[in-house]
Design brief:
Number of strands of chain A: 11
Order of helices and strands of chain B: EEEEEEEEEEEE
Oligomer: heterodimer
Distance between the termini of chain A: 33 Å
Helix content of chain B: under 10%
Structural class of chain B: mainly beta
């Protein structure tokens, strides 16, 4: 499989559940990203990993916990979420951003609903 | 801090009409500029990008964008739209850390 894949595509969870989102990129990139996409709002950058090291954490609540075991895989662990966390969560990858071409390639997203 | 403004949240056009979607950014330094498109039910994909050189950039599917540095703008254009152009369009600009800052998107509906 090519490109950026995400699983699951849809997730419904209660506020007390613990779940994880998975992202895998098959493009040989060094950087991976988690974004939150809500209707009528700009994409919100949540986390950036560059060569497996977290380089950005944009004031994301601790109920979201990222993990990057290698440059091809990225996880987002979720626990005790709130209904306002319902959104489309997008994963993206790119070459090392400071290399000049920081074009990002996106996965299809996980549609998360928190009840 | 860098910010991106897309002027229209919704645009409705008839087939064969000309399209121009506005994008303005706030930070005046060296920037990289992008337009992405999200077709219904599909993932975000790149339409075109500007890093340097000719300020008129041509992308896929007949789209083009013009970088006007003095106006902090990077408007997207297409001379004649098709029903298949119905999608949401996002402008993005790099910040000083090379991360992408996104506009809120413009939903384009093309009436057949």
């Amino acid at each position: 499989e090519t490109g950026v894949t995400q699983t699951p595509r849809h997730l419904v969870m209660g506020m007390t559940n613990k779940k994880s989102l998975k992202c895998e990129q098959h493009l040989g990139h060094n950087a991976m990203y988690w974004y939150k996409q809500s209707a009528k709002k700009p994409l919100e950058l949540m986390f950036v990993y560059n060569f497996k090291e977290q380089t950005e954490n944009n004031s994301v609540p601790s109920r979201f916990s990222p993990e990057c075991p290698n440059s091809s895989h990225l996880f987002l662990h979720l626990h005790t979420l709130q209904p306002e966390d319902s959104a489309l969560y997008l994963c993206a990858s790119s070459q090392e951003p400071r290399g000049g071409d920081n074009e990002q390639f996106f996965g299809p997203g996980t549609r998360l609903t928190v009840l | 801090a860098q910010s991106v403004s897309q002027h229209n949240h919704h645009v409705i056009l008839s087939e064969a009409a000309s399209l121009e979607l506005g994008c303005n950014y706030s930070y005046g330094g060296t920037v990289n500029l992008f337009w992405y498109v999200q077709y219904p039910g599909q993932h975000l994909q790149l339409l075109l990008k500007y890093f340097s050189g000719d300020p008129l950039v041509k992308g896929i599917k007949g789209f083009e964008a013009e970088f006007i540095k003095s106006k902090f703008s990077f408007n997207l254009r297409k001379p004649s739209v098709q029903w298949s152009d119905t999608a949401e369009y996002f402008c993005a600009v790099t910040d000083s850390n090379y991360q992408l800052i996104w506009g809120a998107g413009t939903k384009l509906i093309i009436k057949p």
